[in-house]
Write a structure and sequence with these properties.
This protein has 16 helices and 13 strands. α10 (211-227) links the parallel β4 and β5. It has helices spanning 3-11, 18-29, 35-48, 52-63, 91-101, 120-124, 136-146, 159-170, 177-190, 211-227, 249-260, 266-282, 289-301, 304-315, 351-361, 405-415; strands at residues 79-83, 106-110, 148-152, 195-202, 231-238, 246-247, 334-339, 344-349, 377-380, 387-388, 393-399, 416-419, 429-433. By secondary structure, it is an alpha/beta fold. 44% of the residues lie in helices and 15% in strands. The model has no long low-confidence stretch (mean pLDDT 95). The protein has 3 domains: 3-63, Transferase, Pyrimidine Nucleoside Phosphorylase, Chain C (Transferase, Pyrimidine Nucleoside Phosphorylase, Chain A, domain 3), CATH 1.20.970; 79-156 and 170-324 and 430-437, Nucleoside phosphorylase/phosphoribosyltransferase catalytic domain (Pyrimidine Nucleoside Phosphorylase, Chain A, domain 2); 330-419, Pyrimidine nucleoside phosphorylase-like, C-terminal domain (Aldehyde Oxidoreductase, domain 3, Alpha-Beta Complex), CATH 3.90.1170. Uracil binds at residues 84-85, 165, 174, 179-180, 183-184.
Length: 438
């Protein structure tokens, strides 16, 4: 088999066989095919696409490029959750204790953030002492004992995805639906859960700007799940403005604690209840979505979800006092208010610009080796639909880099669109795609 022939075949729009796909993934991962040939194939895939068989074959080839986690020693149905990435998305921080408090085991492997979307692992590291590198036997023991554990995903899971993603990142081939779908699903398959709930984001802060593209991505991933016998459900959700009010690692942990106390922002709580109830359904803990929502709301109200968060932090060596004394979280030296100079209503908040501003303030990584400032980020004071008058605070910047405040502040101000009329409501959840919908 020659790589040249595969590139030519795909360039002509002819489907590749599973053997051909496995060949290029394996050989590339082993360093036997050069970047320039794989780049050419990725670009051919970008323009020609992959059919359902090819997408499933690519997913399995990537999943099998490394270890597959064995979660069978954990009793119960293990449900994983994945978001395609958004600004201020701290749902995983809320969902891990919330779903575990309902009695469903959560064995979560998460990543670090790159660019303007943060990673759950970075966020958790803002809790003093929190260990995110557990040995496999410690991870399993903790899930059996506490019902939840969260660890940093190791390089041993789907290593070919790492190499392919890095190449896509520099060859303008990231935003291809079959390539995103196979990248996400390969890691989920390798992570070993029995069912997956996906949060597919759409809007100004997401890969999929258009709702119809987000549906296509959701359907592609649910189809892959169906082909490989992994129960998969996808929610298509709004990322046209940041989720909740806070963007930045410690600031998002603080907001997650407020949400677990039942005092979170409405959009964040709504999304957590929607994703969480799908996780309970997939784990066969409840029979209907409504029952799931009801149970989760009770666990927020009676303090059990918050107590579960405390247990998880303690089990992983963290200082659980942060829950009662949030001043123990890292805090930046500078807090700067950004005010509005017009009257009207907030029509939109460009989530990508907010994410980039948070990154400039120190909250994100520009390259994979850059250091992040756990205290940095920003807190929105206004959301879409809110009324504003000149002089009102739009957001508060948190940073240890005072030299960047002017530039970041302008970006935050520019990300707000102010108009005269109150805008109509935008749905948080556009739709749900299950195995019967594909
Ligand atoms: N997230 C992933 O894991 N992979 C992609 O290709 C895009 C988003």
């Amino acid at each position: 088999m020659r790589m040249y022939d595969l590139i030519l075949k795909k360039r002509r729009g002819i489907s590749l066989t599973a053997d051909e796909i496995e060949f290029f993934v394996k050989k590339y991962d082993q360093g036997e095919i050069p970047d320039y040939q794989v780049s050419a194939l990725l670009m051919a895939i970008f323009f020609r696409g992959l059919d359902a068989e090819e997408t499933a074959a690519l997913t399995l080839a990537i999943a099998d490029s490394g270890d597959r986690a064995d979660l069978s020693p954990i009793s119960g149905i293990k449900v994983d959750k994945h978001s395609t990435g958004g600004v201020g998305d701290k749902t995983t921080l809320v969902l891990i204790p919330l779903v575990a408090a309902a009695g469903v085991p959560v064995a979560k492997m998460s990543g670090r953030g790159l660019g303007h979307t943060g990673g759950t692992i970075d966020k958790l590291e803002s809790i003093p002492g929190m260990k995110v590198n557990l040995e496999p036997h410690e991870f399993i023991e903790q899930v059996n004992r506490v019902k939840a554990a969260v660890v940093a995903q190791t390089g041993k899971l789907a290593p070919a995805d790492k190499k392919l993603y890095a190449l896509r990142d520099v060859t303008a081939t990231v935003d291809s639906i079959p390539l995103i779908a196979s990248s996400v699903m390969s890691k989920k398959i390798a992570a070993g859960a029995d069912a997956i709930v996906l949060d597919v984001k759409t809007g100004s802060g997401a890969f999929m700007r258009k709702v119809e593209d987000a549906y296509k991505l959701a359907k592609t991933m649910v189809s892959i799940g169906k082909k490989v016998n992994l129960h998969t459900v996808a929610l298509v959700t709004n990322m046209d403005e940041p989720l909740g009010m806070s963007v930045g690692n410690a600031l998002e942990v603080l907001e997650a604690i407020h949400t677990l106390q039942g005092n979170g922002p409405h959009d964040l709580e709504q999304l957590c209840l929607a994703l969480g109830s799908q996780m309970l359904l997939a784990a066969k803990k409840v029979k209907t979505e409504e029952d799931g929502q009801k149970l989760l709301k009770t666990l927020l109200k009676n303090g059990k979800a918050l107590e579960k968060f405390r247990e998880i932090i303690l089990a992983q060596g963290g200082n659980a006092e942060v829950i009662d004394n949030t001043a123990l979280l890292p805090r930046s030296s500078v807090q700067e208010k950004i005010t509005v100079t017009a009257d009207g209503y907030v029509q939109g908040i460009n989530a990508e610009m907010i994410g980039n501003a948070a990154m400039m303030l120190g909250a994100g990584r520009e390259t994979k080796d850059s250091e992040i400032d756990l205290a940095a980020g920003l807190v929105l004071e206004k959301k879409v639909g809110d009324k504003v008058a000149s002089g009102d605070i739009l957001a508060i910047l948190h940073t240890n880099k005072s030299e960047i405040i002017e530039e970041a502040g302008k970006m935050v101000k520019d990300s707000f669109i102010i108009g005269e009329k109150k805008p109509g409501p935008i749905p948080m959840i556009y739709g749900i795609i299950g195995p019967n919908d594909v």
